[in-house]
Amino acid sequence: MRDPTYQTVNSSSSSFYALNLDDSQWTIPNISGVNETFLGCQDLKAVIDSHRRIFLFGGISFRLNYTVFGDMNIINMNTMTSLTLPIQNVPRRGYTATLLKNNCIIYIGGKSNESVNSHIDMNMIHIFNTTSLSWSNMQAIGDKISSRDGPSAVLTQNETIIIYGGGTAIHSFIRSEPVIATLDTTVNPMRWVIPNNNSTSNAPTIS
């Protein structure tokens, strides 16, 4: 586990914890095969599918010289094992990750490294198929959405992804526009739409 004060891995703590929702008790699961470089990574999203597999992509390691990774780590809660896929994608942190009904995870936004100009184009949609364990890319079309890291995302019943917030930050946070945008994942290519609602310009800033 990362020490939040010194950005290092605390060897006396576990990297994984499990919470029993019935009795609110925490336990430390014994997961084998964990990639050492994955331990201590931050700013990555976890997605779990119906087969009790947790998908963890990329992230940044402060203990490894601020390295941003592009590998996919899969934790199988049925076998309590971890697998790092040999295939790589664009290193990424601070993105959104949304699982669709077709078993594909949609990755949007984020940064590829810690340089000033490393924000990933919001039109570049990276897609991970959890069935075939393979990557594909799609160039989205539609309204102009500014690059950002740290946004939130939710999926609607009609398979539209709504993103909210995020921005760019080097020395100070700069909010990206628009604050709210939607991505229609049911069309090919996927399409960005900015809601026609003046209230979005007054939405509170989050990152």
From TrEMBL:
<keyword id="KW-0677">Repeat</keyword>
<dbReference type="InterPro" id="IPR015915">
    <property type="entry name" value="Kelch-typ_b-propeller"/>
</dbReference>
<protein>
    <submittedName>
        <fullName>Galactose oxidase</fullName>
    </submittedName>
</protein>
<keyword id="KW-0880">Kelch repeat</keyword>
<dbReference type="Pfam" id="PF24681">
    <property type="entry name" value="Kelch_KLHDC2_KLHL20_DRC7"/>
</dbReference>
